Amino acid sequence: METTEKDYSGLSPRALADEITAILHAKGAGDLRLFYVEEATSITDYYVIATGRSTTHIKALADEVAYRMENGGLSASHIEGREAGSWILLDYSTVIVHIFSREEREYYKLERLLPEGTEIDLAEFLHALDEKAKEN
Question: Nearest CA to 20 among 82, 66, 56, 53?
């Protein structure tokens, strides 16, 4: 796992969601989606939702996020589902990360439970990450 010099503890909720999204994207997470849900729920500001290719990949994605966040001074208040590995939830208070298997994601359809207009278009953000990765 890569070490980081970043300090995640003081980031705004959106900046934290972007950092987590970037970490997941770099590790090959599929169907990344970001939702601003502060007005729809009192428990968090953002949901980051991703899909892993296998239980091993799902655990690796969750481990990478947890490792990078802790290394940057921010620990999850709660991690759930690590043992089963088909849906892992990482709770960073203002950002909750859901990493699903394809089957679990299709079954629960979490995105359908969220209000219209809460999804943030990640196309440009992910494209910029890909361009930056090409430069390095």
Answer: 66
